[in-house]
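We emphasize that the prediction below concerns an isolated chain of 331 residues; any contacts that depend on oligomerization or on bound cofactors are therefore not represented. The input was used exactly as deposited, without trimming of termini.
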Amino acid sequence: MNIVSYLQTQQPQLRRQFQSALVSGHLSHAYLLSGETGSPLLEIAKFLAKSLVCEHPSPLADNVCWSCLRIDDGNYADIMIFDGSLATIKKEEIQGMEASFEKTPIEKAGRLIYILHLVENLTIEAVNSLLKFLEEPHQEVYAFLTTENESKVIETIVSRTQKLRVLPVDLNMIVALAIDQGIPLQDAELLAHFYQDPHKMKAILEEDFYVSMRDAFTHFLEALASNYSKAHYIAIDEIIERFTQKEHLRLIIDMMLLFFGDILALQNGQEPSLPSYVNILKPLLKRFANLEEALLEITLARGQIDLNVNATLLLDHLFIILLKEYIHDHD
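Result of the prediction step, given as a token string:
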């Protein structure tokens, strides 16, 4: 993703807000970047961090100086990045960071920076350690925290940070850009709900787990139209018992919400969010009742992913919730 162009064209308010603080010398010691799922939060946080140490800022990072390039490579000594999308951020990591930041900066910029991506994925103990650090900010220490769900970030963290809101980008525009990158229409529509960067979408499309998951879900939906038993078997054999990692679980639940949300939308005469899948979804309109309650329960269950629940058991439970609303043929 060309993050400079993205900020200029899609997030001008955020760009102006941070640039003004940087130029005036009124930087906050901690920023909270919040945006929808799929927003390039980590990429933005890295770029703003670069802007604090860039060798030739104008006034934001030029993205090509030696310092900026070393940040991209993970070789800049005074920046620490913790990615909560990969694993829960633990107390020991926060304490190790705090200990490191007690020392004098190594780089000539003289600033110490840490990025916590998806702070909603910190353990309670890690949150408590972070709060102590935020309450007593050190001079020339800056933080960039990100979240896809601000309601899950405790108020004491929110109140100690300067908020930067990443606004939603028009979905149709993302789909169009993805298609221009050679991504097939159905994949473009589906992935646009999870990623705003067509290059990221293209990379995901090359991942075996996504292709397998997409095909299994499509197979499941097609079977539901005429053969409940076959669909039930596919749910167990091709989805529940196959995809057990946390990141896979999120995507499966999000696919559930998208596809069955579209069935509900079509039942109510509304436009679907995945128009290219209508031919697969239309045969299911008379196969389901009371989807509102099932979708609500699935939405609530999504919040359990970070509680280290058993993925297989959770998926099994969610498919039971969906399939109990299935209307069987009567002889």
